[in-house]
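Help needed: design a sequence for this.
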């Protein structure tokens, strides 16, 4: 089987006044880039992928036309602009600098044709709105999460987190920004919790591969579900996202190893799936309020 191809991205052709600051994620079903855009006019083009832009810093007026539909909006932090694949954009003008903008590039089908079929949706009926110039709390939260990942040391669960964020983003676009609402027959399945047998299979996989990188597809396969259905059903069953669950199991296992005092801090970090001691320290302190070293010292000190 050949390697998966990266998503076709039009950003370099479109953002002539901009500067690419970072590429947060590059996969076959999503690419995430952070840009700084200078004031000016942008070239017209037809989009090859669906694009969502969320501005995190800057204030300006934005004008654009998509397939003849003219829009003018006042941009501020947290506002987004959506342009579906296939739309021909013209007359794009920025009145001032957009200092930090997170761009998400998704395939025309958003979830991929296979996932849409599993969800009971016809890719030919998916038509997103040319929307923007508004604040969407969920889109803003997703953009901020990718910014946080960029500014922090790489962690072993980053891919799992990115997979979950991609599904959340695509699902939100399908739920909130279609030109006409589609109610898929498979929606009932995602509203059901995972049964005990599937949950046990996932838990056993996580424990067996705690020191390795785990993807959403790995966990979904253990439950014999598509990643889309698994992510929704797992959260309904546990109250946690798959990423939160895996991170919790890594932290709890690390606590036991630290208390046993049989391994160095680096050995504990690697054996519980943290790629480095720095990423282990950051995640452990965020979860417990202590560094691993402080936790070990407290565990060794006898109670009075």
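Sure. Designed sequence:
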């Amino acid at each position: 089987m050949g390697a998966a191809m990266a998503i076709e991205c039009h950003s370099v052709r479109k953002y002539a006044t901009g500067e690419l600051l970072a590429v947060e994620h590059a996969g076959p079903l999503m690419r995430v880039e952070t840009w700084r855009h200078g004031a000016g006019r942008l070239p017209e083009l037809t989009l090859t992928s669906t694009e969502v832009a969320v501005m995190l810093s800057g204030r300006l007026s934005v004008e654009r036309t998509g397939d003849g539909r003219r829009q003018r909006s006042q941009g501020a932090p947290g506002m987004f602009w959506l342009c579906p694949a296939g739309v021909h954009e013209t007359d794009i003008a920025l009145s001032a600098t957009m200092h930090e903008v997170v761009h998400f590039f998704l395939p025309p089908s958003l979830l991929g044709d296979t996932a849409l079929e599993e969800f009971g949706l016809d890719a030919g009926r998916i038509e997103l709105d040319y929307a923007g110039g508004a604040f969407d709390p969920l889109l803003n939260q997703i953009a901020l999460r990718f910014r946080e990942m960029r500014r922090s040391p790489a962690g072993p669960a980053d891919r799992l987190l990115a997979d979950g964020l991609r599904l959340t983003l695509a699902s939100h676009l399908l739920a909130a920004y279609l030109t006409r609402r589609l109610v898929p027959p498979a929606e009932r399945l995602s509203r059901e919790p995972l049964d005990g047998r599937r949950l046990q299979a996932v838990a056993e996989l996580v424990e067996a591969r705690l020191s390795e990188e785990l993807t959403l597809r790995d966990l979904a396969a253990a439950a014999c579900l598509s990643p889309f259905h698994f992510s929704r059903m797992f959260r309904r069953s546990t109250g946690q996202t798959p990423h939160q669950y895996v991170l919790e199991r890594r932290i709890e296992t690390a606590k036991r190893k630290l208390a046993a005092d049989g391994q160095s801090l680096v050995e504990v970090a690697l054996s519980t799936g943290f790629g480095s001691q720095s990423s282990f320290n950051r995640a452990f302190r965020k979860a417990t309020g202590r560094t691993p070293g402080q936790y070990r010292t407290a565990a060794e000190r006898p109670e009075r």
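The radius of gyration is 22 Å.
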